[in-house]
Amino acid sequence: MDKHPFNSTLETGIRALVVLEAFYPRHCDLMEMTWFDHLIVHTGDIDGQDVPESLHPDLPNRTGELLVRRQLVERSLRMMQQMHLVEVFETEGGIEFCAGEEAPSYVGLLQTPYSLALKDRARWMADRFTQQASVEIRQLIEGRIGRWTTEFTTDDTSSGRSL
Fold it and tell me: Superkingdom of this entry's organism (predicted)?
């Protein structure tokens, strides 16, 4: 049995798929997917009106989560790509991800209360972030969760191009 049921490659892959399906047709890079993987379960980290309650508890030591999440999100996206649920695009800016043709059918099958809550939060995030450039999202993350991004961006960003 997995010691971390909320952070397994499968669950992270499902979260990524739910996010990409909500953001479709927008493509997201690995950094954005890592931010969105955090925000979909910690929506309370964003200020504003109509912000949904966080799905996961706000633990005090979650400041390092983005550092751990990046590799997990990358593995999960690779798994979803192998399952033909996520498409990968090589662009001038690097590797980008988008929901695949089968994504809506798969996401539609997710009907548990937790899955429905994930889909609601993904739609909320898509409404909020779809039209924003990565730079704007980064500024929001740095403004709200500054030290995470500072630590996070010191990591070798080229690993996001290994797919």
Answer: Bacteria
How many other C-beta atoms lie within 10 A of the C-beta of residue 113? 7
Contact 143, 136 (CB under 8 A): no
Residues in the chain with pLDDT values less than 70: 1-6, 59-67, 145-163
Q: What b/e sequence results for 95-104 when a residue is b if at least 16 CB atoms lie within 10 Å of its CB, and e otherwise? A: bbbbbbeebe
What does the block give as tokens for 42?
A: 């910690």
52 by DSSP, 3-state: which? coil
Map tokens 């309650």 to a residue.
53
Supply the pLDDT for residue 160. 41
Q: Which pLDDT score, from 0 to 100, does residue 38 have?
A: 87
85 closest CA partner among 21, 162, 163, 7: 21
What gap in Å lies between CA 23 and CA 80, rounded to an integer?
16
**DSSP alpha helix (H) spans, 3-133:** 9-23, 30-41, 65-82, 103-109, 113-129
Return the axis-axis angle of helices 65-82 and 134-153, rounded to nearest 10°: 120
pLDDT score of 61 = 60
Residue 4 confidence (pLDDT)? 52
